[in-house]
Amino acid sequence: MDHHSNSETLQRIYDALEAARQVLSRFTPGAIAAEYKVGHDPVTEADREVDAVLRKNLLREGEGWLSEESVDDYTRLEKSRVWVVDPLDGTREFVAGIPEFCVSVAMVDNGRAIAGGICNPATNELIIGSVESGVTYNGQPVRASQKTTLRGALVLASRSEVKRGEWEWFKSGPAEIRAMGSVAYKLGLVAAGKADVTFTLTPKHEWDVAAGAALVLSAGGYVQTLGNTELRCNNRNPLLSGLIACGPLLRNELVSLLDSRRSEVSRS
After folding, report:
1. Are 12 and 137 in the same domain?
2. Mean pLDDT score of the chain, rounded to an integer?
3. What is the band of 40 on the pLDDT scale with cuts at 50, 70, 90?
4. Which of 142, 168, 194 is the endpoint of a domain?
5. 42 or 231: whose pLDDT is higher?
6. Measured between alpha carbons, how far is 242 from 19 in angstroms, rounded to an integer?
7. Residue 109: pLDDT above 60?
8. Same structural domain for residues 168 and 78?
9. Closest C-alpha to 207, from 101, 116, 85, 110
């Protein structure tokens, strides 16, 4: 991506997130009606309105679109540049009035998440960047954690996975575990160096993680799927095994910790 198209892409992401923030300002978290989709995931009028405003601000001729709230259009598979968005990641938290939700926008180029932006309107946080330009948190340059050991590291865990008891195994480990909603928001905080690690123990869709992964990579951090492969986006089936993200120096210790858990779980 040349410098002009990089700054133009980042400007588009910024404008789209600002427009989304305007839409969300009309809704009160914790006082909004939700419907439930198949699989019991909530969806609100806010999700749909933000989806429309993102599409209007982001999409240009020749680009593809993949959004949690749009009917999938497989012509995206023929496009090299594709927007992968989640209009509202953390809808459960939004409905419950917990300030852990965000708008998540990624630009994917030939399968690689190369630029992204995350806006949490409840906490007034904007994290935006690209592999070419690095990452800013509310306008200030940031980078991923340079911590060298998991001892005392802050690991952001999925609130719903913790509720289901899936994180019990890690609680006796060396790191501090904090439950939080919205995987995109957690990834954004890792990119900004506000936390050291986050990972999911369950599968996630591309729209959940593409923007956050782009930000972590752009901030010099490490990202891979739970299945130990490089993250590739714009697949026909957007469901991924899960995602691991951390500061660059924690990669080996984290991967071996997850491997030990995996072998213990498969033995039990």
Report:
1. yes
2. 94
3. low
4. 142
5. 231
6. 30
7. yes
8. no
9. 85
Query: In this predicted model, which residue has the larger pLDDT, 47 or 239?
Result: 239
> What order of strands is seen across the sheet that includes strand 112-120?
64-67, 81-89, 102-109, 112-120, 125-130, 134-137, 140-142
Q: What is the CATH number of the domain that holds 50?
A: 3.30.540.10
Residue 159's CATH number: 3.40.190.80
For residue 251, pLDDT beyond 80 = yes
Angle between helix axes 206-218 and 183-191 (nearest 10 degrees) is: 0
45-48: long-range pairs with CB below 8 Å, 24+ = 46/87, 46/88, 46/94, 47/87, 47/88, 47/91, 48/87
Amino acid at 208: D
Is it the case that residue 9 has pLDDT exceeding 60?
yes
Would you state the structure tokens that stand for residue 99, as one six-digit string? 């300030």
Sequence-distant (≥ 6) Cβ neighbours of residue 142 within 8 angstroms: 127, 135, 136, 191, 192, 193, 219
User: Does 93 share its domain with 162?
Assistant: no
CB 47 within 8 A of CB 54: no
Residue written as token pair 């306008």: 139
Evaluate if residue 234 carries a pLDDT over 60: yes
Residue 61 in any domain: the answer is yes
**How far apart (Å, rounded) are the C-alpha atoms in residues 200 and 212?**
13
